[in-house]
Amino acid sequence: MTLHLQTLSELRRQLDAGTISARELTAHFLDRIERFDGELNSFITVTAEQALAEADAADAALAAGNAGPLTGLPLAHKDLFCTDGVRTSCASRMLDNFAAPYDAEVVARLRRAGMVCLGKTNMDEFAMGSSNETSFYGPVKNPWDLSRVPGGSSGGSAAAVAAGLAPVATASDTGGSIRQPAALTGLTGFKPSYGRVSRWGMVAFASSLDQAGILARSAEDCALLLGAMAGHDDRDATSVARPVDDYRAALSTPLAGLRVGVPEEFFPAQLDAGIAEVTRAALAQLEQLGATLVPVRLPSIDLSVAAYYVIAPAEASSNLARFDGVRYGYRCDNPRDIEDLFKRSRSEAFGDEVKRRILVGTYALSHGYYDAYYLQAQRVRRQIANEFNAALAEVDVLVGPTTPDVAFPLGARTDDPVTLYMADMFTIGANLAGLPALSMPAGLHQGLPVGVQVIGRPFEEGRILNLAHQFQQATEWHQLRPGFGGEA
Amino acid sequence: MSLDPQALARVAHLARLDLSADDHNGLTERLNTILAMVDRLQDADVSHLEPMAHPLDAVQTLRADEVTEPDVRAQVAPLAPAMDDGLYLVPRVIE
């Protein structure tokens, strides 16, 4: 099998057996990026020279017998993780000229584990979007159908992995930005519990929701990467000090006796019949594997999108206040005075969606509206979190669709933000409650991938990865590849 | 909750955004669509619940007041848009 179709675990075996070197592996992916990314636009920056140097160091470690489970394996980082000496743009004109002077904790951990960074992937500007159409560097295409979106905001990471331009990529999830693109490109996407992975060095969008995670070809690969990414970081006050489980050891547990909650609200009457059918089939498969299906209720989940679009913009308006032309990023030419410098720098460098969210957030936090909107949204958030926790006290995990649709055509929803926001209707709840969640490929509809979502209790990442791995041992949906990029 | 052009201008000033006349027309309509969607929150009876600002309900931790960061001047300085004699050059804002 060609290298770019293989999982990390399969590539690991080849590196360990010596049938390929880390340099050859890295060169293979760099060659694929050069040949195929012109159509996909999944990378903002490719760090070829640095990658080959890192690969040589990995080969030396392999030869010396000092290799760990990730040594020599290539990956790409979403362009909101700071990387020492390399542009970290967050897909914004605002940070187009920003080279971070340090590594984000996630990047540092994976670097220390010996992984080889191929480059930085495209994304929605400041991670604001559900289709990867808001990037300053242009939209990303879905390798399954180049006329369609790959999902957002981690669409560059998703398209790169789905098209075989990288075997795995980091990503971030504020309202579904890992799981939604995973579903739309046929990948396994994993968002750990809030606090499980350090956010230090990750450009902030909505700080109480953002969490770093993974886009990969399998649950096993997610487990492999999470083991290196997870753990307390005393530079991140929201990072949780509790031991990291052995996620790979958890994969092989049989599902017999597992209680799977099926929220009635995840199957609304208007849900696309094809998506519902694929999800029901996945649930039947889990039942065959020994799980018990239990109906549960999440009555307030239909308010999650509304709560999110008050809370996330409010936090964004605060986080993005630092980008003023003085402290960070783009600066306008010839400002008249300091007010003009702030306003023109921000207006010239932020895109439309970022401006929309800053305005909504500023409005929701302004005098006269704070109690009615911001505090009300935070109370609804509490209700939604309470309902998730009550359901998860009865069952081990919740399972439902990841998205209401398959990948939609580029440009189809750019003039209709509310319809676009609804693409995250099933994923936002896990962010509001801080729960770990995963999307796994479970079928095709209209020839395009469909994802099924698994949500777990806080810090029970191993249980979710176990369910997904057992499902993937019994099915072949995660092995389907788009007909893009030659042999892919 | 809805915005008229005057309210939008006030919010844009608070957000330090400079909106053109074209921006105003399109934005007022789109923002009102978003605000109409979030208006659904008003129907929820949640007055008995504490607002949830954070998924871990964590309290802010404080570290000891000690210098912990290394001197990275030599790393950071070359990244600045303009330098002169070891000093950062910034736009003149006080005449």
Features of the shown structure:
heterodimer, A: 488 residues, alpha/beta, eight-stranded mixed beta sheet, three-stranded mixed beta sheet, 39% helix, B: 95 residues, mainly alpha, two-stranded antiparallel ribbon, 34% helix, flat
Put simply, the count of helices of chain B is 3
- Span from first to last CA of chain B? 42 Å
Strand order of the largest sheet of chain B: 1-2
pLDDT average of chain A, as an integer?
Answer: 96
Mean pLDDT over the residues of chain B: 86
Oligomer: heterodimer
Largest sheet of chain B: 2 strands, antiparallel
Order of helices and strands of chain B: HHHEE
Give the strand order, joined by hyphens, for the main sheet of chain A: 4-6-5-10-11-9-7-8
Number of strands of chain A: 11
Determine the strand fraction of chain B and express it as a percent band: under 5%
Q: Which regions of chain A are unreliable across 5 or more consecutive residues at pLDDT < 50? A: none
- What does the radius of gyration of chain A come to? 21 Å
Shape of chain A: globular
Q: Mind summarizing the main beta sheet of chain A?
A: 8 strands, mixed
Q: What class, by secondary structure content of chain A?
A: alpha/beta
- Please count the helical segments of chain A: 16
Annotation, overall tally of beta strands of chain B? 2
Condensed summary:
The complex is a heterodimer of chains A (488) and B (95). Chain A is of the alpha/beta class. Chain A is built from 16 helices and 11 strands.
